[in-house]
Amino acid sequence: MTKNIKKFEPKFKSIFDVEMALKDKEIDLKKTIEKILSKDIGINHGTIVEVEDYGWEFEELNVELFSDEFYDKLEEFKNEGKMIYIHTVYATEEIEGKSDNVYGYELSDDFNEEDYTTVGVDSCVRDCDLIINQEYYSGDMIGDYGIMVEDGKISFRNYIGGMHSSIDPITDLSEPLNALAVEILLDIIEFKD
């Protein structure tokens, strides 16, 4: 394990603070998605955007993925109030140890790696490892974090894949992985002027 572990201190204490930071802001879908696509983080580019009623299947729209027409169609969906989810930050134990950027959350003075879990976090703006006490970590948290746009409102969600996949709202920032993901999501999202 690296010797240069930085202390992770969340910028936001509650989801209400995050909601206030997003209040009255409108996402620029094209700029945000292009930013996300600028770095390969292990999420298939063809499945980075999900839209209500379509999922990842955009063939019937007869538009090329990530073309100007595609972004125009996303704007139409947004204006119709459809749910749009953008997979943005990848977090899993599978990619831990691949970053020189390591953060620890509430590590004890007699830190013993065996008592902690390390989660790798990757995005277009930052990659890092987060070392957290196992009491803060649930294997269900791994997957990806993303941006949800629904009825014109922006929120941040956690996508859990598998047989019973779900896209759940991030509500608890006392979980350090959630807090870190929200900070990264705020660094990624681009807003309209």
Explain what you see:
By secondary structure, the chain is of the alpha+beta class. 22% of the residues lie in helices and 27% in strands. The protein is built from four helices and nine strands. It has helices at 15-22, 29-37, 68-79, 176-188; strands at 5-7, 49-51, 84-92, 102-104, 116-122, 127-133, 143-150, 153-160, 166-169. Strands 1, 2, 3, 4, 5, 6, 7, 8 and 9 form a nine-stranded mixed β-sheet that branches. It is elongated, with a radius of gyration of 17 Å.
Secondary structure elements and their pairing?
Blueprint: E1 5-7, H1 15-22, H2 29-37, E2 49-51, H3 68-79, E3 84-92, E4 102-104, E5 116-122, E6 127-133, E7 143-150, E8 153-160, E9 166-169, H4 176-188
Parallel strand pairs: 1-4, 4-6
Antiparallel strand pairs: 2-3, 3-5, 3-7, 5-6, 7-8, 8-9
Could you provide a short overview of the structure?
The chain is of the alpha+beta class and 193 residues long. The chain is 22% helix and 27% strand. The chain has helices at residues 15-22, 29-37, 68-79, 176-188; strands at 5-7, 49-51, 84-92, 102-104, 116-122, 127-133, 143-150, 153-160, 166-169.
Pick out its properties:
alpha+beta; 193 residues; elongated; nine-stranded mixed β-sheet; single chain; 22% helix
